[in-house]
Amino acid sequence: MHLGSEEMYAFDLAGRPVSWVRHGVVWRRGLDGAVLELRRTGREGWEQGVRRLLPGEAAAQAVHLREVLEEGWRVLGGPDPLRRALELDLERDGLRFQGIWRPIPILPPDQYRALVLQRTEGCSYNRCSFCTFYKNRPYRVLTREEFADHVEAALAFMGPSLSWRRGVFLADANAASLPDESLLATLTWLNQRLERRRPGDPEFEPRNLSRVASFLDTFSTLRRTLEVWRELAGLGLDCLHLGVETGSDRVLRLLRKPGSAAHVEELVGLLKTAGIRVGVIVMSGVGGPTLAQEHIEKTAELLNRLPLGFGDRISLSEFEPDPSSPYVQEGFSELFDRQACREQSREIRARLRFQGYPRGPVISHYDVRQFVY
Ligand code: SF4
Q1: Is 40 a residue whose pLDDT tops 90?
Q2: Residue 96 belongs to a domain
Q3: Does residue 52 sit in the same domain as residue 117?
Q4: What is the CA radius of gyration of the chain?
Q5: Residue 20: what are its φ and ψ, rounded to 5°?
Q6: Residues with CB under 6 A from ligand 1
Q7: Do both 21 and 61 map to the same domain?
Q8: Does residue 300 surpass a pLDDT of 70?
Q9: Over the stretch 208-238, which tens digit does the pLDDT of each residue have?
């Protein structure tokens, strides 16, 4: 709904508010009820302040949304889609979401509209010095029965809003590194479950969910053969997102991430040969000033060696150090500010030698602070 030229409100087909804009400020609501506020700051257009609203502020936004909906209902003569939005109890809906999903702290930048299904909880490694996403979540693989229940609950929760979702994202952190048989069985089962039309939901289009993406760490699946990767691709495994972080093995050791640039090259080559698209995420600012030049050079060199093309993605993410992480607590390096990280992203990008889009990969900025599911 648009109100004049300064206000816009977007809802999904279940009536949940998704995002709204007023006088240049953007708010995004997560399914758990969290609301992010995005404001342009500073002189440069890219600078964006991101803030998670306090519960009282989010409640005030909910009151405002209700007023807008009631006004829309009156002016537009009571259209049915608005009825769902007006009848929805946002607080109860957020609690219902929290009963089905564990918190979703991060998704790759092109997966924000995926249907997230949590086959595993947490990260099977969970020891990188900079990462606190899953620190308090012991790693666990759901049983097949638990996962089936989770999928049914997720589909019921989404209801008519499922038509807005694109693809399935198999979570949590590195679900794609499940043992081969388990991952093959999961995709086979998901294909069968998601191909059926859903009674009472004419909007649902099964084809929208036929592609599966996931995160994959860069070190635990090197024994998986090309044949298995091909079989997984045939079952709908469409894209894997790799937290590569850096092309410098010295910086990688500071991050306490196993593997090496050579491992990344081998893995990406396998995935591409199997027909799986690849999203590579690198972080600017890691390694601090001492290793800055090495990080820039080796990262650009590694990226340029990868066989990335149409359908692939390189995401340049600025390091967001968590003060409670070992990286900060143990003083692994001096920390760059956002401006310096942004400069480093530009330097890495300027060294990339790919064909332009659409022949080459999408190369984009990736601000993890802006994510809310
Ligand atoms: S960066 Fe990835 S592999 Fe490392 S602890 Fe975090 S989720 Fe696990």
Answers
A1: no
A2: no
A3: no
A4: 21
A5: -150, 155
A6: 123, 125-126, 128, 131, 133-134, 173, 217, 243, 257
A7: yes
A8: yes
A9: 898 999 999 999 877 899 999 999 999 999 9
